[in-house]
Amino acid sequence: METVDQTFKERLIDFTFYCRERQFMLGPQDTREAFDIAERGYWLDRKLFQYSLKAIFCKRKEHFDRFDEMFDRFWSRYYQEKLEARKKAIKQIKKEPETDTLIFLGAKFNKPRQEKEQKEAKQTKGANEQLRLRMTDFSKVDIADKERLEELAEELFHQMSMRFKRRLESANKGRIDIRRTIRHSISKGGLMLDLAYKKKRREKRKVVFLLDVSGSMDTYSYYLLRYVMVLRKYFRELEFFTFSTHLTHVTPMLRAENEEQVLRAVGKNVHSWSSGTKIGESLSEFLSKYGHKFLSQKHIVVILSDGLETGSVTQLKEAVGTIRRKCRTLIWLNPLKGMKDYQPIQQGMVNVMPHLDAFESAHNLESLLKLEKLLMDV
Q1: DSSP string of 8-61?
Q2: Running DSSP on this structure, what letter comes out for residue 140?
Q3: What element of type H or E holds 226?
Q4: Does domain 206-376 have CATH number 3.40.50.1980?
C-alpha cells in the first residue's frame, strides 16, 4: 500500500482549517480520525476518501449540504496535480533515473527551511490576494481571477450567514429571568445549572429582494444572486424577484437541493436576463400581483439596480413611492455608486432618491458584506 506523503498530510491539515473557518465543529479527535482513514489507504480512492471525511466532519444538516462542493473545490486541484506528477515522474525515471534521485535527495535536505519560507510567503501573498479580490469591481474581474473570486465569495458569504444565525439565536434568548432561574435551582440544591430567559415577542423577519438582470447589470447580477441565495437560509421569510422588461418570481426556484440546480433553474426560467430595462413597469407589476402579499410594515425591500430606466420615469417614481409607503424600510443598491465621483444624476435615480431609506453600493464583495448591518436591523 502506498504510504501517505508529507504533502498530503499538510494538505489534510489545511482542509481541516478550511472547514473550521466555515463553522464546521472539528476537534483533535476528528483530525486524528481523518489521518487514520488516510493511513488505511482511503486517500488513494478520491470518492471513498470524500465519503469517509464527510461522515467524520459533518455534524449538522447544513454541513452535509455544503461538504461535497467544498471537498471538490479544495481537493480537485491536488488530485489532478498528483496524477500529472506521477506521469511526469515515470517519464523522468525512464530517462534520467540518477538525476531524479539526486534532485530528490537535495530537496529532502533543504525541505525544512524551504517549507518555512514558502509557508510565510504563501500566507502574505494569500492575505494580499484576498484583499485585492474583495475590493475588485465585479465588472472588472479577469477570467484568471473568476474562480478565486467565486471561492472567496462562497467563503465570506457563508461566514456572514453564520453571523446572522448567531445573532438571531442570541436575540431570541432575551434577558435572564432571575426569579425563574432561582425557582428552578431549588430542586437542584440551589445550584443555578439552567438559566431561564425572558423572551421578547419578536416580529418575524421579512425581506423582499428585487434584482435588476438587464444587460447593464449583467456583470453584477450573478454575484448578487449568490448573495441572496445565502441569505434565504437565515430569514424566516425571504422573497426574491428578478426584473428587466418584466418581472419573474424566483423564490420557488430557490428551493432546489443545491446551488448548481438553483442557477440552472434560474437560467431556464428567467427569460429576460440581459435584456432591456423597464424598472417602473416591473415594480408596478410587483405591486399589482404581489404587493398585497409581500408588502407590510414588517417588510424590508431591497432593490438592486443601476437605475438606468428606459421606460417611464413618472411610473418609476410612483411605484417606488408606493412601495415605500407600504413597507418598513426601502434600500436601493446601485453598483454604479462604487465608481469614483459617481453622482445619482440619472433621471431614474433623481426621482426615486427622496423615497429611499438607504442608498448603497453593490459593486464588489466588500460592499455586499457591509450590507450585513442594514439587514440585521430588519
Answers
A1: HHHHHHHHHHHHHHTT----HHHHHHHHHHHHTTGGGSHHHHHHHHHHHH--SH
A2: G
A3: helix 218-231
A4: no
* SS3 assignment, position 239: strand
**Residues 6 or more apart in contact with residue 125 via CB below 8 angstroms:** none
Q: d(Cα 378, Cα 373) in Å, to the nearest integer?
A: 9
Question: Nine-digit cell at 208?
Answer: 423582499
Question: What are the extents of the domains in the chain?
Answer: 6-95, 206-376
Question: Cell for 366?
Answer: 466588500
User: How confident is the prediction along the chain (378 residues), in pLDDT tens digits per residue?
Assistant: 556 667 788 888 888 888 887 878 888 888 888 888 888 888 888 888 888 899 899 888 878 888 888 888 888 777 777 666 665 665 665 555 544 444 444 544 455 555 555 555 555 555 677 788 888 888 787 777 877 777 777 777 777 767 766 665 655 555 666 777 777 767 666 665 566 666 554 555 688 999 998 888 877 888 888 888 777 766 668 899 999 888 999 888 877 666 677 777 777 777 667 677 889 999 999 999 999 999 998 899 999 998 888 888 999 999 999 999 999 999 999 888 888 778 888 888 999 999 999 998 888 888 888 877 777 655
Phi, psi of 257 (to 5 degrees): -65, -40
3 state SS of 324: helix
Instruction: Answer yes or no: are the C-beta atoms of 272 and 246 closer than 8 Å.
Output: yes
Angle at 209 between CA 337 and CA 341, to 5 degrees: 0
Residue type, 278: K
pTM beyond 0.70, yes or no: no
